[in-house]
Structures are given as structure tokens and as C-alpha cells.
Amino acid sequence: MSTANLRRHLHETRNRPAGINNRKDVKRDRLLLRVKRWIGGTLLAPACLVTAVTLSIMLWRAMTRMEFLKSEEFIFFSFGGLLWGGIYLAGIRPVTAYVLGHELSHYVTARLFGGRVFDWKVSAAGGYVETDKSNTWITLAPYLIPFYTLIIMVVFGLVGLALDMQAAHPVSIWHWTVNLRPTRFLYALVGLTWCFHATYTVKTVIAEQGDLKRNGEFFSMMLIFLFNAFLLIALFLAASPSPGLGFAEVARCWWSVLSGIVGWVVGLVW
User: Fold this and answer.
1) What is the domain range of residue 61?
2) 252 three-class SS
3) pLDDT tens-digit map of 66-78
4) What CA–CA distance (Å, rounded) separates 223 from 8?
5) What is the pLDDT of residues 75-103, one digit of tens each?
6) Cβ(188)–Cβ(156) under 8 Å?
7) What ranges make up the beta strands (E) of the chain?
8) Residue 216 buriedness (CB in 10 A; 0-12 / 13-18 / 19+)
């Protein structure tokens, strides 16, 4: 929810007339919130548990096979993540950049759902997007999708149409010529931007942002975790040097974990 909408919501809450709880739109919103809580507890929470275990198993298997740790994708992704960690620990806080990506995520998603945007603002103190459309995907978009990572991947994808991204290209720097491979920059920038996204997503969730409260905090956190876990799995598959490892293998592992957990629960009950 934008800052302006949140202020308006609080103002309306304090000044709402008697009997407003009987309005159809209020009843509908409360029913929708209860449904989201039910979905979060019965569907998303178990899915998050299974996905987290699956991701842990995949990472453990990869780390016991040194070819993954030695892969170019893993090395440069880790370099990007460590670079962001150094920037953050040095006290550099690009808050305005995060707010810009946050509000643009609201903006773009609202437009994709056919909403009209009347006004939007970005500053280090916060930002907002005023639109006539609101749903779960619009309000949670900044937490589900790493905006800058997506931009990096689109840009490199377009560049890849005209340039061989795997080949080393000579670049002259003063009196030296350096062979640079574009994919290495891609992996490093993806690592940096995803860690940037993860850092501020965690900070925002801890701060109990209005976007999460509107959809139910538990439901929102489960959905955010699930989306980001699947994104990590996709990045893991892209970085894996094993040609046999794909989404089919991940699906089999996911189903195996689910079957194991269900069997364990059934054994406890019976």
C-alpha cells in the first residue's frame, strides 16, 4: 500500500461512522482476509516447508560435489553478493534506489492489471503510488520480484541478441587490453541485486509495512518466502554445471520431500 493510501486508510478508520462494519465492501474485505489466512495456514505454509527442505537438499548435494562450487556462475554470483555485503556493512544505504524499485514494481504491476496511476512519488523518506486498482499481486509485487535483478536480466538478454555473451571480448584500458566475458558481469550483478532485494525485503517485513498488513501478515510472508525460494531454485539451476539437473529433477525432489513429510505426520497420528 502506498504511503498516501495508508494515511488515508488510518484517517478513515479513526473517523468512520457508526454501522460501517455492516457495509458490503467492509464485509467482503474481512471475508477475503479470512480466506487469505486460511490459504496461508493450510496451503502456503506446508508448501514453504517442503520448498525450503527441497532447496536445502539441492544445495547440500551441490556443495558436496565440488564442480558446483568451482563453477563460474556460482563464483561470480557469490562475488556480487559479497560485494553488496561489503557495501552494506560499510554503512552505504541506497534507500532511494530501493524505494524507486519498490514503487516502480507497484506502478508496473498496477498497469499490467489495467489500473490507472494518478500520482506517484519517490524519496529517501518513502514513496507512494496512487492507483484505482489494488489486489494481492499489486501490493506485494516489490517483495515477490527483485526489480533490479529482472532489469539486469532483460538488459543482458537484449545485449545477447547481438553479442556472444560466453565469448571473451578484448577491451582496451589505457595501455592494456583485457579480455572480458559478459556473462561474468551478469552473474555478479544478479548476485549483487538479488542480495540487495533480499536485504531490504527482510528489513521491510520486520518493519511491518502496510502492504503486508493489508493482505494479512502471515499470508504475505508465506507468499513472499515461496516466490523467493522458487527464484533461488531457478538461479541454482542456471548455475548448475550438471546438464541432467532441471526442473523435472527439482519436481521429483519436491514430491519426494512432500511424501516423506506426509508419511511422517500420518505415522505420528496413527
Assistant:
1) 3-269
2) helix
3) 577 778 888 889 9
4) 26
5) 889 999 999 999 999 999 999 999 999 99
6) no
7) 117-123, 126-131, 169-173, 176-180
8) buried
